[in-house]
Write a structure and sequence with these properties.
about 50% helix; N-(1-d-carboxylethyl)-l-norvaline Dehydrogenase, domain 2; alpha/beta; about 280 residues; single chain; Rossmann fold; binds nicotinamide-adenine-dinucleotide
Length: about 280
């Protein structure tokens, strides 16, 4: 039987996870607290499918079949309905995620795997409010989801082994490469990656080089596929700021202190690619 996947949060990550799951043959329902994000997510999925056809990766018939497996649902309860796997990709805010998972646990089928796509927050803290914390693990996908191979499966003290094993198997089903990481701030990826991104911003503040040249230093000098400032634009400056604030608070190390330029840009609504401007100017 096809896996049934519910994705909560239809933003940058939610639509990407939904697309990857539908592409892998799962039936997917996407839900969001803001109903107007649902058509936007579907439009982005249509764009990804279109790109797949143009690059010769998908036939027209496959595109139609994948699209037919994706549905949107503004209400949480019917969205979770008969899901086997439920992935949360809402705003990076512990209290919001805790509240949401209380509702999810009440509503979801009792044997559904619960997963959070948080980039940095403690999975144990999110799970702490659940009657059965063992059901929840982290499944940290990367942006853009259809391109990036890695999924961090995050386990915590109260997580069950079967939940982690299911998450690993599900990540593989989606064609991803899972790694298993113990719950600790920023896991393996954000804890390292954020340091690089924040330092690049400090270098920009200090006029060491232009954004383009700082990025080129990492791309050409260290063989990173994308420089840290461009990557921050793709991730979203607001998302990066929330992660940096959390890591600064939990790890207490100065390298995680958000630079002024990041705070200012977020205040001005320059959130990166999704708003058309961040460290770069973007057009569609
Ligand atoms: N952006 C990235 O590169 C990236 C990478 C990996 C993980 N993440 C993580 O994924 C999560 C989502 O990030 P994003 O970049 O997709 O954010 P986003 O702002 O693009 O989308 C978040 C969506 O969640 C919705 N939402 C907020 N509260 C909700 C609620 N209570 N119930 C249902 N929907 C709600 C919002 O309306 C919005 O559509 C965050 O935890 C983030 O840290 C982000």
């Amino acid at each position: 039987m096809r896996s049934r996947v519910a994705v909560i949060g239809a933003g940058t990550m939610g639509h990407g996870i939904a697309y990857a799951a539908a592409l892998a043959g799962c039936d997917v329902r996407i839900t969001d607290a803001r109903a107007d994000s649902l058509p936007a997510a579907l439009a982005k999925i249509d764009g990804l499918l279109e790109g797949g056809v143009k690059r010769g990766k998908l036939t027209g018939a496959e595109r139609a079949a994948v699209r037919a497996r994706v549905a949107t649902e503004p209400e949480l309860r019917p969205a979770l309905g008969d899901a086997d796997v439920i992935i949360e990709a809402v705003v990076e805010d512990l209290a919001v995620k805790q509240r949401l998972f209380i509702d999810v646990e009440r509503t979801a089928p009792p044997d559904a795997l619960l997963a959070s796509n948080t980039s940095s927050l403690s999975i144990a803290a999110i799970a702490a409010t659940l009657a059965q914390p063992a059901r929840l693990v982290g499944m940290h996908f990367f942006n853009p989801v259809h391109v990036m191979k890695l999924v961090e499966v995050v386990t915590h003290g109260a997580a069950s082994l079967p939940a982690a094993e299911r998450a690993v198997a599900f990540a593989r089903q989606l064609g991803k490469e899972p790694i298993v990481v113990r719950d600790s701030p920023g896991f393996a990826s954000s804890r390292l990656g954020v340091v690089l991104g924040l330092e690049a911003m400090r270098m920009l503040e200090q006029d060491v080089a232009s954004a383009e040249d700082i990025d080129k230093a990492m791309e050409l000098g260290y063989n990173h596929p994308m420089g840290p400032l461009k990557l921050t634009d793709l991730v979203g400056l607001d998302v990066r700021l929330a992660i940096a604030e959390y890591l600064y608070k939990t790890l207490g190390k100065s390298q995680y202190e958000p630079p002024r330029i990041l705070r200012d840009k977020v205040k001005q609504g320059e959130l990166g690619k999704k708003t058309g401007k961040g460290f770069y100017t973007w057009s569609d």
